[in-house]
Design goal:
Layout lengths: L5 H17 L4 E5 L3 H10 L3 E2 L12 E7 L2 E7 L13 H15 L3 E10 L10 E9 L9 H6 L2 E2 L4 H7 L2 E7 L7 H9 L4 E3 L2 H10 L4 E10 L6 H27 L8
Parallel strand pairs: 1-4, 1-5, 5-10, 6-8, 8-9
Antiparallel strand pairs: 2-3, 3-4, 5-9, 6-7, 6-10
Helix pairs in contact: 2-8, 3-7
Length: 266
């Protein structure tokens, strides 16, 4: 058999990509950092906890799964940190569970859902829900040419024009870091990222899904106003339950829209 030349390999790759984006979405993975955010959706979609974990032995990661209409729904929650007993928030857990979920479940689409801080200077208010148009890090500071760009790791999110039009959701740029508060140097980076919302997971999820070519939608609900008058932690805890309800409603609408469509139709 004659060896494939570069043009044959490229054609095969393009054919595979075309088939992927044109087939109906079947398996959806929803990655959520906090149990409080995850459980209402588990109930909504009538999911059950996987008794035989698809993940490596010893990790605290939890998978809830089931069928909703034409979709195989998987909600992945990183679980409780074994040492402290709190939700495993942040970029490290987010990137690990994203990679492991893609390897184990081969999803057609990932939704990273969660709460976030918002900036009133960009028009954000408590309870607003945004779909991210762009994602970037604000606390990976590497002041060396080119390494600085790698640190920010700015990426365009997967484009979903039909979803945005149909659901009338707000759109804004998302900036990610591993701290709930905002230092002056973080603020400078967030401003450079032109962010409307900030979280602790999104850009980490985006890094992995971009590497593995999995379309990803970022849905973020505002619990606190970062450039407001109230302390961030206090406002976050005060609004978490109510804003989670808005988040879950938005994610449900996204799932309803996705059902029966292919990636190219989003």
């Amino acid at each position: 058999m004659a060896p494939h030349d570069d043009s044959t390999a490229k054609l095969a790759e393009e054919t595979m990509v075309a088939e992927t984006v044109s087939k109906p979405i079947s398996t959806v993975v929803i990655i959520i950092a906090m149990q409080t955010e995850a459980l209402p959706l588990v109930t909504k979609f009538n999911l059950v906890e996987d008794p035989n974990s698809v993940f490596p032995k010893g990790v605290p990661w939890v998978r809830y799964y089931g069928t909703y209409k034409d979709l195989n729904i998987n909600i992945i929650w990183p679980g409780k940190d074994p040492a402290s007993g709190v939700d495993s928030v942040g970029t490290v857990s987010a990137s690990l569970v994203t990679y492991a979920s893609i390897q184990a479940l081969q999803p057609d689409l990932i939704i990273n859902a969660g709460t976030a801080g918002g900036f009133k200077a960009k028009g954000a208010g408590i309870g607003d829900v945004y779909v991210a148009s762009d994602v970037a890090f604000h606390d990976r500071r590497i002041p060396i040419p080119v390494f600085d760009l790698y640190g920010v790791c700015a990426k365009r999110a997967f484009s979903t024009p039909n979803l945005l039009k149909e659901l009338n959701l707000k759109v804004g740029k998302l900036s990610t870091g591993d701290s709930l508060d905002m230092s002056p140097i973080d603020e400078k980076s967030i401003t450079a990222n032109d962010a409307t919302v900030k979280d602790m997971e999104g850009a980490a999820v985006a890094y992995v899904t971009d590497l593995l070519s999995v379309p990803t939608i970022f849905v973020k609900a505002v619990t606190d106003i970062v450039d407001g008058d109230k302390p961030t932690a206090e406002e976050f805890l005060q609004n978490l339950i109510a804003v989670t309800a808005a988040l879950d409603q938005a994610v449900t609408r996204v799932v309803e829209f996705v059902n029966g469509k292919c990636v190219a139709e989003l």
